[in-house]
Every structure is written in structure tokens, then in C-alpha cells.
Specification:
four-stranded antiparallel sheet; 237 residues; alpha+beta; 3 helices; 15 strands
């Protein structure tokens, strides 16, 4: 069994139809899903499943090998029942904007300062990235903020592509983290490209162009070690 990951090719799916292929307690496995299971610093989606007059809140989503599991509240729908999935779209879209904002930040820092990423995380409209900077001053932070918002204003399109793992391994710049975090079992690598700025291996969800992100504000920066500096951002309308 395998769950088709609809979010991999269309981040804008708000609803979808799929059959239940397995249940285990309150855990539902679908043959296809638009719920993102979390990963790469992006939290999992939430929402609900619908069948007839019944509705189940989806409180947790996670990857289990080739399957995507959905933790629901209450007795789950039976196997083979067709359900409609509905994402909490406001939350998902906020995460898409935030994730793309972090890629813009990463692309600018890599392009202009050559610093790799040592960590990162996000929540809706807020996120942080750690970089290999020895020093980070207020003047540099102001410079970086101006540059990332210039990329937002440039309305750069964002494209998805897939390539065999062997091909991706020949392009080390696809991995911007200090350590390659791609699991060895991944044979096809998904790349997210911000046209004219950045391309990275990434499995998360993104907006279609940089303008959708909105204004990016650097709200804090701090040292997390000798050559490890943290930049925290907020995304605004």
C-alpha cells in the first residue's frame, strides 16, 4: 500500500476525495491525501474528513514509510469508505507563505554571504533559520531584510521539479543544510526553485510566487554558538 501525496504537486488543494485503505484505532490511512505530514521544519496540516453527515477532526498527520497516517477524533470511518478531506486552509496557506519566506531568506544569505543553514523551524507566519555566520550585527540584519523584501517585490515565480536521487547528489547546492538530511530511502528528489534566486531539495508546500509571501520582517537575531547565528522572521500582509 502507498498513499498518493497530492500536496507534492499541488499545494493549493483545499479539498480532495479519497478512499480509506486502513484503520488502526483512531488512525486513518487514505489512498491519497492533500494533508502535509510535517517535515523539514514545516508542521503537519490539520482539518477534517467528511462522509455523509459525519465529520472527523484531523488533529495529527504523519508519514509512516510510503503511507500517510491521519489521527482523527472519535471512531474512524470504515475501510473502503470514500471520504472528503478538508484542510484548515487559513493555517496551511500561512505555512506556505512562511515556508517560502524562509527559502527567500536562505537564498539571499547563500547568494550574498555564502552561509549554509544549520537548523530551522516554523509556525504559521513566524519562523527561524540558523546560519553559519561568525558575526551578525544590526547593520547586516537591516541589509538582509531589505534584500529579502526586494525579492518578494520582484514577484519571482516558484517552480517544482523531480529528479532521480543520483542526479540530485551531483548537485550539492540543492542541499543548503550543513548536514544532508535527505533520508537514504528517497529515490526521487523534489526540488523547489525560486526563479532567478534559489533552488533547494524540499518536500514542503509553497506559494506560487514571492509576492504572495507578503512583507518579511526580521524580528530578532541571536548567537547560538561560535559560528551559528539565528535569524527569526515574521510574515505580514
Amino acid at each position: 500500500m502507498e498513499t498518493r501525496q497530492l500536496y507534492q504537486t499541488d499545494s493549493y488543494l483545499k479539498t480532495f476525495d479519497a478512499a480509506v485503505i486502513a484503520i488502526n484505532g483512531s488512525i486513518v490511512t487514505l489512498e491519497a491525501t492533500a494533508f502535509f505530514p510535517g517535515g523539514g521544519g514545516q508542521p503537519h496540516d490539520v482539518g477534517r474528513l467528511l462522509a455523509g453527515e459525519r465529520a472527523w477532526q484531523v488533529a495529527k498527520v504523519w508519514r509512516d514509510g510510503p503511507l500517510i497516517r491521519h489521527g482523527v477524533e472519535g471512531e474512524p470511518p470504515p475501510v473502503e469508505v470514500a471520504v472528503r478531506g478538508e484542510l484548515d486552509w487559513a493555517r496551511r496557506y500561512s505555512l506556505m507563505r512562511t515556508h517560502t519566506a524562509l527559502h527567500i531568506l536562505c537564498g539571499v544569505v547563500w547568494r550574498d554571504y555564502g552561509a549554509k543553514v544549520t537548523g530551522g523551524n516554523m509556525e504559521p507566519l513566524r519562523g527561524r533559520m540558523d546560519f553559519e555566520f561568525e558575526t551578525l550585527r544590526g547593520e547586516l540584519i537591516q541589509e538582509i531584510e531589505a534584500k529579502i523584501n526586494a525579492e518578494v517585490a520582484a514577484v519571482r515565480p516558484i517552480h517544482l521539479s523531480f529528479m532521480p536521487r543520483a542526479e540530485a547528489d551531483r548537485h550539492p547546492d540543492l542541499i543548503r543544510t550543513k548536514v544532508n538530511l535527505l533520508p537514504p530511502e528517497i529515490t526521487m528528489v523534489r526540488a523547489v526553485a525560486i526563479e532567478g534566486l534559489d533552488v533547494q531539495a524540499d518536500g514542503g508546500t509553497h506559494v506560487a510566487n514571492t509576492r504572495e509571501v507578503g512583507r518579511i520582517r526580521i524580528v530578532d537575531y541571536k548567537s547560538k554558538g561560535k559560528i551559528n547565528k539565528r535569524i527569526e522572521i515574521a510574515v505580514e500582509d
